[in-house]
Amino acid sequence: MIVMLEPDSPESVVSGVLQVVSQYKGVTPRTHVISGAESTITEIYLLGSTSQVPVEAFQQLAGVRQVVRVSQKYRMIGRHSGQRVTTGFEYNGVTFDDRSVNIFAGLCAVDTPQSVDAMMAALARCGIQTTRMGAYKPRTNPYEFQGLGASCLPWVFESAGRHGVKVVAMEVTHPRHIDEIRDALEKAGNPTGVMLQVGTRNAQNFELLKSIGQQREFPVLFKRGMGITLEESLNACEYVASEGNAKIVFCLRGVKTHLGDPHRNMVDFAHVPVVRRLTRLPVCVDPSHAIGRAEAPPDGLPDIFHAIGQGIIAGASMVLVDFHPQPEAALCDGPQALRLEQLKALQRYVQIVRGAYDEVVANGDGMGSESRAPALAVAR
Ligand code: PEP
Ligand code: MN
Fold first, then answer.
1. How far is the CA of 72 from the centre of ligand 2 (A)?
2. pTM
3. Considering only Cβ atoms within 10 Å of each terminal Cβ, which end of the chain, N or C, has fewer?
4. CATH tag, 2-68
5. Domain limits of the chain?
């Protein structure tokens, strides 16, 4: 059950609700605050045996806007009736919601300080403050490059800070990687921030998901599992939120099937609106791992651009994309890496497609909703 309060409700309303909750045995409240530029919304989630708790017990309280019973599914991340706002958040000065588009362009795998610096400098030239840098690589084959691990973190974070990059998406494959990242950031004087990436291969690694959910410091980029249903991926993502961390972006990255050939995976970006309908999370697309190659048809736009277009035109607000200063020398996923010279074009392409999406939603003559819910920027 979720008790949604009126925007900007004072603390007294919250305590009034908590007081009523305390009368019901086996029910635990969890308060969730979503703050934005215009207003702050508080929702109180009632966990446990709520079937005997009457909706009226809260509905009649002053300051309560709506009470909804939710199914067992996606209690935290789900979009339940009456919830029009997408849960956004702000992290290290960057806003993540369904309005602000963020391009996380960077190295699939960190290899040398020179590559990292060249990537960061290219981002800085384009005014992009977000990147991806893989230090811990979950490889299919044990004999392939496994990533430099904690040893590269000091120079990766230093370079990010020097180039004004504020958020680095970085996959973690073990809970101890979270501590290593935290330590390295602290030692470097927190020159940048990190968004913890859950890779497709760990989408159902529940203990890892719990550890990521138990910390509130780093936001999370959750990638759907490549060989499980969307429903299973969303349930897995719920593990992170149910442990207390609601700063999540849900990422589509293609699914495994030979029907997707000649691409690396079957592009699943038609699921962007589905995720936006079923959850309140901002949605990211990763065209690099979906497509797996950097080639282009005669129009000159790589298949990767076309896939990005499919995601953005459907309402995705984040793109995770592989680049490398020398793709032929990359130690991981070189064939899908775009060249640094393509970054500006990619940025422009995303702006154009997003512009089309915004236009359709705002003035689409019935194509989209004219009265969109106000964006809320921050979740705590
Ligand atoms: C990655 O982003 O580097 C990666 C390994 O992606 P995925 O988990 O989607 O395969
Ligand atoms: Mn990769």
1. 34
2. 0.90
3. C
4. 3.30.70.1140
5. 2-68, 101-363
